[in-house]
Task: structure prediction
Amino acid sequence: MTDALAEAGIDISTLEGVQSLFRESPDPWALDCLANWIDVTVNHDRTLYALPKALGDLKADVVFPDLLRSAENEKLIGPVDDASAADRVMLSADEIGRLYTVFESWASANVELLRQWIKFTTKVRRIVAGRFIDEGELNRWVRDTFWSTRPRGWLRDHKHGLAADHQLLAFDMVVRAAQYHVAFGPTRVYQPHPLRSLYVPQVSQARAIHSWGWLVINEIACSKKAWDQKQLIDVIRTVRAGVQESGATESELLGVSAEQRREKLNSVAVASGMGILPSSFKKSIDRLAIAIGIPLEIVGDAHGVFFVGLAWEVVQIPLKRGVASAIERTKYVQRRVTFPGDATSRPALAVIQRQLR
Result:
């Protein structure tokens, strides 16, 4: 892998956001969390989660969502070392003041979004068990000293209906982002939860021209059957393996032509799709291929395409036009595997939540 920053960091709150897709009350940023986690995971050698506190002092069964544990068992993510735990990171009073000013400005323009996030996060196990279960010295200072003396402004003066304790909960989320940013260090990319990404200086927010995360999300939306956590993790592992083996990470694609980039991405997408198609569908394609005498290695790279409707074209055409046309069409189908573009092509949160068990 050519990327000097081969390790990437992501926070537990992002995994809580993904976990919420399997629950009644979702994080309003849940889809962004899922897309970010997938993209970080497939494009780096190692993905690490930021420790809020040294592991020995944490009630792990409360702090870590089930999805994180499952992903860790599959070697998709692991903890950063104890020495980099966020509770050991101190920030200056001036930096805390700067973060608060930016947070207040954002909150005044995004009241409803903040309210939705508060509704979600107050039901998270860690918060229910005890807000400051993973607090450090800085978090206690923010709670006990800074919060009572913070500057007067929109949050303190406006009748917005946001309880002071809920404001503090959201602001603590921002403070921890700054701690995590330091904890991960300069040798790792840090992709924070979207609520955190607005406030941390120099956080890597560069977006590639393609997103495996949004491709998987769109596939979930189009699926005929519901997904569970295991299937989601299996698909992420499959895509990651394909990207890594094909040299198709974001950094590796920077040095190739647009045509080469498209071919690499399409090849991984087609091969990875085989893991998410219903087994009955794949068997039907295999039987048809055998019946009409097409070697399975010809259709094998195409009948796993993410977009099922396109895959059917591969087996329909030989019945009408012959094997030569089938080979030509297989290449054409692979070129048509496209990644979601702007937000208008992305499914609604409620749609994805209905598809996930």
User: Anything to note?
Assistant: The chain has a mean pLDDT of 79. The longest helix spans residues 164-184.
